[in-house]
Design a protein that fits this description.
Oligomer: single chain
Strand order of the largest sheet: 2-1-3-10-6
Order of helices and strands: HEHEHEHHEEEEHHHHHEHEEHHHHHH
Helix content: 40-55%
Structural class: alpha+beta
Largest sheet: 5 strands, mixed
Distance between the termini: 26 Å
Length: 428
């Protein structure tokens, strides 16, 4: 991989130190009594940074007593930095949170309970209750959804049109593999049909849900067994062996930033991604027309999709300007002008009134995302519970272990055995 996520041991050490500092420190203030400065960090592409900074500027204009210092990084680097800041007792006042890390940071008292105190100023009245509930751990709300997205396949429509396969209709995995092989062959195999999805925990989750299983159980254990993982990796490996998907060297350099992803670099003609990334892919591609489709499935009517929080917004439990921080979060979610500026960069707005307004006015890439979500809405199930502590480590383990298959250093059976043994340790 081009960058590695912090290990669970690093994250836990950072969180333990932060918890001790929070317990021993002074009572966080509310930001009253003069101008305040808060820090705000998020992950994403350069395009996302441009959009977000415009929104922050609007917030500062509306709130002249609050100054916002912003930082952003690609996903991997973002979590490295947040772990370091947390270890130093200085996490961002407002931070973007991912469902994989919510339990790690929330249960170790790094995040403010937004159901009490300053957090009460954040209104979720116009957010879908199912989506709003995704930021809860037990009775405490440690995060609020910043956007809703759905799993998808983003693809180059021109490349796939030449295969004769109608990508707008439901496809089985075998049908999609055949189409991807044709795309690869048409380029002399210099451009593969799809980025290898064997490294993606998101792809595994969709495949599991298509078969009536879950990634994690309600009590924080793996929701699948060795046989399930073996079948999924055999599927992914069949794409790679048949040259329908990217080779090992390309797969190992996978980066979630659209500019750096194999699809964004035009090394592949399709990639499994969340639909909120579509506008950034479109920007990278320029004039090439890209489209979105649901995952292939061998079970009619089951795509595995659910109403997913694209990402969350959380507030530091030890920040000294919590009122100002909560005010920024409320603005990002509920201000109509802020919603218009953000568009669908992170997914659909969580505020349903803003979403309806933007849907009616949408054009270009934003309209593609709105139309896609409208089409899949009947298929969206409620989101699963917040993943347990160790979910981020499981994601990293999945990627690392599948790379051993891609480079043919391990057989599928050997890789499955290694993963299952190490996963148990990460979840304990």
């Amino acid at each position: 991989m081009s960058a590695r996520r912090p290990s669970r041991r690093t994250v836990i050490a950072a969180l333990v130190v932060s918890s001790l500092l929070t317990a021993c420190g002074s009572e966080p203030g509310g930001g009253a009594g003069g101008d305040v400065t808060i820090s705000f960090a998020w992950w994403g592409s350069d395009n996302r940074a441009t959009i977000t900074k415009k929104v922050v500027e609007l917030f500062e204009q509306r709130n002249p007593g609050i100054k916002v210092q912003t930082t952003f990084a690609a996903y991997n680097a973002y979590w490295d930095k947040v772990a370091t800041q947390t270890a130093g007792g200085n996490p961002p006042d407002v931070m973007t949170m991912d469902t994989r890390y919510l339990s790690e940071y929330g249960e170790r008292k790094v995040l403010l309970d937004l159901g009490a105190g300053a957090g009460k100023r954040i209104s979720l009245a116009d957010v879908n209750p199912e989506l709003a509930a995704t930021g809860m751990i037990g009775a405490k709300r440690f995060a609020v959804p910043w956007a809703q997205n759905a799993s998808s396949l983003v693809y180059d429509s021109a490349a796939y049109a030449a295969t004769g396969v109608d990508m707008s209709k439901p496809l089985t995995w075998e049908q999609f593999r055949n189409a991807a092989e044709k795309v690869s062959a048409a380029s002399g195999f210099s451009r593969r049909g799809v980025t290898d999805f064997g490294i993606l925990d998101s792809a595994l989750e969709m495949w599991l849900r298509q078969h009536g299983k879950a990634f994690f159980t309600d009590d924080g254990k793996l929701g699948f067994g060795a046989d399930d993982l073996r079948e999924f990796w055999k599927l992914a490996n069949s794409f790679r062996v048949g040259k329908a998907s990217s080779g090992a060297d390309v797969t190992a350099s996978y980066n979630t930033s659209p500019e750096q992803a194999p699809f964004g670099k035009k090394l592949t003609a399709a990639e499994f991604a969340y639909d909120g990334i579509y506008p950034s892919y479109q920007k990278v591609y320029g004039t090439t027309e890209l489209k979105i489709a649901p995952y292939p499935s061998d079970v009619a009517g089951k795509t595995g999709q659910y109403r997913r929080p694209a990402m969350f917004l959380s507030v530091s439990a030890k920040g000294k300007a919590q009122e100002a921080s909560a005010k920024l979060v409320d603005f990002l979610i509920n201000d109509p002008e802020a919603g218009k500026l953000q568009g669908t960069d992170r997914g659909l707005p969580p505020n349903l009134k803003i979403r309806a307004q933007l849907a009616a006015e949408a054009t270009g890439p934003n309209k593609v995302v709105f139309d896609y979500e409208t089409a899949v809405e009947p298929l969206l199930a409620p989101a699963p519970p917040v993943p347990p502590k160790g979910a981020a480590a499981i994601q990293k383990l999945l990627q690392r272990t599948y790379e051993e298959i891609a480079f043919e250093r391990l057989s599928v059976d050997e890789a499955v055995s290694r993963f299952m043994a190490e996963a148990q340790k990460d979840l304990n």
